[in-house]
Design a protein that fits this description.
Number of helices of chain A: 5
Shape of chain A: globular
CATH class of chain A: Alpha Beta
Structural class of chain A: alpha+beta
Number of strands of chain A: 9
Order of helices and strands of chain A: EEHEEEHEHEHEEH
Order of helices and strands of chain B: HHEE
CATH topology of chain A: Aminopeptidase
Helix content of chain B: 40-55%
Radius of gyration of chain B: 16 Å
Number of strands of chain B: 2
Oligomer: heterodimer
Radius of gyration of chain A: 17 Å
Strand order of the largest sheet of chain B: 1-2
Helix content of chain A: 25-40%
Number of domains of chain B: 1
C-alpha cells in the first residue's frame, strides 16, 4: 500500500506531498538508527543537562527499530512509514492481536494497538523549540494515527484502537486526537493507556470534513 | 491492500457454534475471527520457536505454562 498524503512544511507554511506506505523494510529501521537516534540522544542529553522541564526531555532515546526485524514477517504486526523529501519522517508499529479494549463499554473487544509511533526528531515541535530550532514537517503523528484507525476498520475492529502514551505525547493524544484516557498502567512503566471507541475514531478521521 | 483469496471451510456444527459465539462476543465477522486466530497462532508459534514460553497467570499471580501445538 502506498498513498499520497500531505505534510505541513513549517518553513514555507505550505502543504507538500508525502508518501504513506506499509511496505516497511529493515532499511527503514536502519535509517532510524542512523539518522534519527543520534539526534534524539543528543537532544535528550542537552535538555537534561540544561535543566529543561522533564516533560520536554525525550524518553524514547533508547528505542531501536532494528530489533523488530523479525516482526516484519508476522501477520499480527503491521508497520507504516511516512516518507518525504527523500527521507523517512515517521514510523509506526501496530499489533492486531494481544491487546483488547479496556473502556467499560467495549471491554474485551479486539482493537488495533499502536505499539510504537515515532516522528523523526526534527519534526517534533516541542523538542525542536526546546533546542531553539524550527521543526521541519508537521502532521506526522496525525497521519500515522489516521492510518492506524483505518487499519482497525479494515480488520473489522470498527476503529477501536489503543496505545500507551509517553508523557511527552499525552496532551497530543488527548487534545489533538480526542482519545479517552483510561488510566495509568503499572504493567507498562505507569504509562497512560488511551483508547478510541468507534465513534471517537470516526470523529478523528472525519474532522474538518463535515 | 493485499489481494485476497477465497477458500471453502468445512466446520462441524460445534465448531461453527463456537465461531458464531466468538463472532458475536467480539463484535467481529466470522472471517475476522479466523484471521485473528491465524495471526495469533503464527505469533505464538514464532515466539515458541525462538525459545519463548507461553504462560497464563491467574488472580493469585500463579503462572501455568500453556502447551501449544
Amino acid at each position: 500500500m502506498r498513498v499520497i498524503v500531505e505534510l505541513l512544511d513549517h518553513q514555507s507554511g505550505e502543504f507538500i506531498e508525502a508518501e504513506l506506505f506499509d511496505e516497511v523494510t529493515i532499511d527503514h529501521f536502519l535509517e532510524t538508527q542512523r539518522e534519527w537516534r543520534p539526534v534524539v540522544t543528543e537532544a535528550a542529553l542537552y535538555l537534561a543537562k540544561a535543566g529543561a522541564k522533564p516533560i520536554l526531555v525525550p524518553r524514547h532515546f533508547h528505542w531501536d527499530w532494528t530489533k523488530k526485524e523479525a516482526d516484519l514477517r508476522m501477520l499480527a504486526i503491521t508497520f507504516y512509514g511516512l516518507g518525504c523529501g527523500g527521507a523517512l519522517q515517521g514510523l509506526m508499529k501496530l499489533l492486531t492481536v494481544g491487546h483488547t479494549c479496556r473502556l467499560p463499554e467495549q471491554a474485551g473487544k479486539p482493537l488495533v494497538y499502536v505499539d510504537y509511533l515515532e516522528a523523526a526528531p526534527w519534526n517534533i515541535k516541542p523538542l525542536m523549540n526546546a533546542l531553539g530550532k524550527a521543526p521541519r514537517y508537521g502532521g506526522i503523528g496525525t497521519l500515522l494515527l489516521e492510518a492506524a484507525v483505518q487499519k482497525s476498520k479494515d480488520e473489522g475492529f470498527k476503529g477501536r484502537l489503543a496505545l500507551h502514551s509517553l508523557p511527552t505525547s499525552e496532551q497530543f493524544y488527548l487534545k489533538a486526537c480526542g482519545m479517552t484516557a483510561v488510566g495509568r498502567d503499572p504493567a507498562k512503566q505507569n504509562l497512560l493507556w488511551l483508547e478510541y471507541t468507534p465513534e471517537q475514531a470516526e470523529r478523528f478521521i472525519t474532522r474538518g470534513t463535515a | 491492500m493485499n489481494t485476497k483469496k477465497t477458500m471453502t471451510l468445512n466446520l462441524t456444527e460445534q465448531e461453527m457454534e463456537v465461531l458464531e459465539s466468538l463472532s458475536t462476543q467480539k463484535d467481529l465477522t466470522k472471517t475476522a475471527v479466523l484471521r485473528q486466530a491465524l495471526r495469533l497462532y503464527q505469533l505464538v508459534d514464532a515466539r515458541l520457536a525462538q525459545g519463548g514460553k507461553l504462560f497464563f497467570e491467574d488472580g493469585q499471580k500463579k503462572k501455568a505454562e500453556l502447551m501449544v501445538l
